[in-house]
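Morning - oxa(dethia)-CoA inputs below, output right after.
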Amino acid sequence: MPTARITALGTYTPPGLLTNQDLERLVETTDDWIVERTGIRTRHIAPPEMATSDLAYEAAKVALTRRGIDATELGAIIVCTVTPDMLFPATACLVQDRLGAKGAWGFDLIAACSGFVYGLTTAAHLVKGGAHKKVLVIGADTMSRIIDYTDRSTCILFGDGAGAMLVEAGEPGDPGFIDFTNEIDGSGGDALKMPAGGSRMPASHKTVDERLHYVHQDGQAVFKYAVRKMQEISLGLLERNNLSPKDIKLLIPHQANRRIIMATAERLGLSADQVVINIDRFGNTTAGTIPLATEDAVQSGRLKKGDIVLFTAVGAGFTVGANLWRWGF
Ligand code: UT7
């Protein structure tokens, strides 16, 4: 069985910034409150002419260029997103066309903040099973398009961004995919959702007037669930592989709230240098957070070939996921 190895990473964030000071002018909030409760200082916001496929394309291009391969070599493209350009065609089709990835198939994967972890799991199995030699996983979200900038409890949290990882077949013994655990708990569906725009509640004047095309969240319910599950799933996955938290080089968690990450790190007994946090600069970019945080870890030299890295996420659904890899380049 071939190893599934991550061989390249690319990210993209649009240049526009939304600061806490900007938000102070939009809703009743303060920089102090946002920093203390979430750890966020700025978020990137896409210009009106840019949609999720554009962010995804830019991130994909960087990954392919860094790897020095042509898009025609891709077997599949998985776009993890909750903000597709349109419900259909899939954003993966738009990205495939723009990249010129002739011969690749693909699909959009809706798992909210766990999207990128689910995408990595899927790609690892497509590669390990021998179906494809190269699968591109993209996490991309333009959250600013579904955020209500009159709702202070959600508008402070989210930003736009994208990242892509290339998962390739490697030789046995190459650093690569170790294991995963993914779960869903649909009983938590009401805690975080965009109520309208689907077949249950199609768009109407009423749904627009009632602001139902935006993110609605029970923040505390999501917070409590996230803290519990991030720890539980991480520990379970490590134990199953005869590892303890001290054996991992880095935990790269979904970036939803600095306090969720710190609580997880504390419960796992991780030291500060084992945890990547960059929520201060990007906010919660949903499927984009893990590749964006990984980019920081690679650029700063904190993540090197062969290091054990644990990706963990909890998101709307509820969706929960963890992936254990030896970093591949
Ligand atoms: O990726 C998965 C997606 N989401 C998450 O993981 C988010 C999980 N939840 C959270 O991060 C936190 O629950 C929030 C950051 C959303 C909220 O923080 P909190 O510490 O749970 O605050 P809270 O909802 O308990 O609200 C405390 C107070 C309330 O006022 P009262 O009722 O005590 O008077 C809120 O109205 O803070 C108020 N509040 C704000 N105040 C200033 C809520 N949002 C703001 C705000 N600025 N932006």
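Note: The pocket of oxa(dethia)-CoA is lined by residues 29, 33-34, 37-38, 113, 152-153, 156, 192, 219-220, 222-223, 226, 254, 256-257, 260, 284, 315 (CB under 6 Å).

O.
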